[in-house]
Write a structure and sequence with these properties.
Number of strands: 6
Structural class: alpha/beta
Order of helices and strands: EHEEHEHEEHH
Strand order of the largest sheet: 3-2-1-4-5-6
Shape: globular
Helix content: 40-55%
Largest sheet: 6 strands, mixed
Distance between the termini: 9 Å
Number of helices: 5
């Protein structure tokens, strides 16, 4: 029941969606623990089999077909306003932010309407540089600081999202 006495159906409950193709294992573990602690369903969406960090009723693998953006399309087609998406894919983050869904990357940076266009522009610029043969280097290794920031951001956004239910 909500504060207003309205019954909350399972479909109305917050879900955490993970674009699981390239998410660090540490993130998967943190999110799975948080999902179990808060009784929130965690859905790992991927076009290849992944090992789930926990076997509990709140954590589930959602297999999708192969192909470019198939997992992204599945997530966008199934999210609800107020859900939370974890992805390093900036175009996917842009799509979910447009749907009024919370989104963060595995390093704990929140995507929002205020910053998503800038992030898309930088991503597109770097993509164009790489397509001309410029070596831009890859992302820095996932650090303990990234893990800490991710956990803090996840906790803050989960608290915010659960308060709205």
């Amino acid at each position: 029941m909500t504060e207003t006495g309205k019954k909350v159906s399972k479909c109305d409950r917050l879900k955490i969606w993970i674009d699981a193709d390239a998410t660090p294992k540490e993130v998967n573990t943190i999110v799975s623990r948080a999902g179990a602690r808060c009784e929130v369903e965690v859905l790992f969406v991927s076009n290849h089999r992944i090992t789930l960090p926990f076997n509990n009723s709140y954590v589930r693998f959602v297999p999708v077909g192969t192909g470019e953006d198939v997992a992204d399309d599945y997530i966008v087609d199934h999210i609800s306003k107020g859900d939370l998406v974890i992805t390093a894919d900036i175009p996917l983050a842009s799509r979910v932010v447009d749907e009024e869904v919370l989104a963060i990357n595995p390093r704990g940076q929140e995507y929002s309407r205020a910053n998503i266009q800038e992030r898309l522009s930088i991503r597109d610029f770097m993509h164009n540089l790489r397509s001309t043969g410029v070596q831009t280097g890859g992302p820095k290794p996932y650090s303990n600081n990234d893990k800490k920031l991710f956990g803090e951001t996840l906790d803050r956004l989960l608290t915010k999202a659960l308060a709205k239910q």
